[in-house]
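User: Fungal lipase-type domain-containing protein. Structure?
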Amino acid sequence: MQGLALLQRHGQSPRSFEDSMEAPDGLIQEAAALHKFAEAAYTGPLLDFGRNPFLFPCAWLYRQGLLAPWARNRWPILDGDNWWRGHAAAFLKHVNLTPEVLRRGRVNQAKCEAAYFIVVLHHLRSVVVAVRGTETPEDLITDGLCKECILSAEDLHGLMNSSHVHPDVKLSVESSFPHYGHSGILGAAQDLFRQIDGNPGDYDAECKSSGFLSSLLGAGCECDGYDVRIVGHSLGGAIAALLGIKLYRRYRNLHVFAYGPLPCVDAVVADACSEFVTSCNYCTVTRYQN
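Assistant: Predicted structure:
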């Protein structure tokens, strides 16, 4: 409701479903294939409670690896994980992948911080960033910080300075400033951007950084030329969309799949990023028409 109020207050009517179009088959198939990563990001008991309402404690303990503590050293070390590395184990068990694909992640949080997981899929030539949706009290605080805020030039830098965005799209955004977003989601996206790609001030003239993604995707690095996919459900989908806007200048092969995202930007910005952000709602994958 806050998202709708934000659009209405600034004279931008929300688009109806009839104004959107179904995404191409290739995007639909990719969205379906990557959904498991957005789901796996719920490494606490919430996912298991939804699937096993009566036996969820047993299901959660199994997915956390507590029934096989001798396997602890197999799992990657994530920021804020428990001593038996249960969140890493839970994520990998859900997506059914081996430990070496999970390169980085965070599960401990403060206000306006997101839990995330970074996965390298060599067989698909992709790097996937999975952002968790609402699961903890900290996530609820981020949800609740829904006061509108102005999107700064830095927040839209990746969109407005990208050579991949059509000039007419840039003009529509530039001519309609100021633009507005959800303050809690924007804060979480800004923090996550710093976590995985460094500070914007660190960029040189060629827009290079010393961040973690650059260490994977930079020229001559392990994942040079790979696609970048950012996925998230609900709150995680909204954070993923704003993160994608900030990263799009640097990674041309970037696409965001947001599953049931919260409203987080105004309609003009939503239209401007429709080429690289796909919203998946009620099992239907749609994009806004330009």
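The first helix runs from residue 2 to 9. Confidence is low (pLDDT under 50) at residues 1-14.
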